[in-house]
C-alpha cells in the first residue's frame, strides 16, 4: 500500500483551499458563468461525401486521400468522410442525401466545405457484373449532380470532384 506523505498532500490541500475561498468570496459562480457562457471556438469542418473512393480513402495503409487530408489538417480542421462503397449517384440521392441533409439541418455539423466525389460506380459497364450501378453520363452531369448541390449549397461553400474522363 502506498504511503501518503505530507508533500503529496500539498497540491490537493491547495486546490481545495482555492475552491473554498473562491466559493466563499462569491468569485466561483462568476468564474463558472464566464467559462460556460463563452462560445466555444470551432475549427473548420470539411465534409467529404462520396462513394467507395471516399470510404476507402480513409485507409492509411493505402495512402488514402482522406487519410492524407486528415493528416495534413489534423491541427487546423476536422475532416469528416461520408463515403459509401457501391453507391451510384441515384442511390446516393435516394438513401444518403436525406440523412446528410438532416444532419446538416440539425446543426450537428456545420461544414466550411463540402466535397462530392461520385461517379465511379455510375461508370460501370452496362453489360458487366455491376451493370445495375450504371448511370448514363448525361443523367449524371445534367440532372443528378445539380440536385445534390441545390440541397447542400445552403450549408456552406462547395467544391465538386468528379472522375476523370478519358
UniProtKB/TrEMBL annotation:
It comes from the Eukaryota. Coiled coil: none annotated. Residues 48-139 form the SGNH hydrolase-type esterase domain. InterPro entries: Iah1-like, SGNH_hydro, SGNH_hydro_sf. PANTHER family: ISOAMYL ACETATE-HYDROLYZING ESTERASE 1, ISOAMYL ACETATE-HYDROLYZING ESTERASE 1 HOMOLOG. This is SGNH hydrolase-type esterase domain-containing protein. It comes from Phytophthora fragariae.
